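Structure in, sequence out. Go:
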């Protein structure tokens, strides 16, 4: 996958995290208390930092959602293209 597409996906994931934060009505510190992450890191993820799978699990715990909700973003990938 080309770099531009990767950055687009990472940014969309960050947007999704911002939406979940807004919906949760929780501060970054409260979110951090709900999972095993630092509040400064949560801010970084919202700005577009590539996440590990286990980080997504921790964020899902903090937001009180299933991890698939975090990954429910619009993107196009041609899985047939090799």
């Amino acid at each position: 996958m080309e770099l531009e597409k990767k950055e687009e996906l990472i940014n969309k994931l960050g947007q999704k995290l911002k939406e979940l934060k807004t919906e949760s009505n929780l501060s970054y510190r409260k979110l951090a208390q709900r999972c095993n992450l630092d509040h400064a890191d949560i801010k970084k993820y919202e700005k577009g930092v590539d996440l590990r799978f286990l980080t997504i699990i921790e964020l899902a715990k903090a937001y009180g959602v299933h991890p698939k909700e975090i990954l429910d973003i619009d993107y196009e990938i041609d899985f047939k293209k090799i």
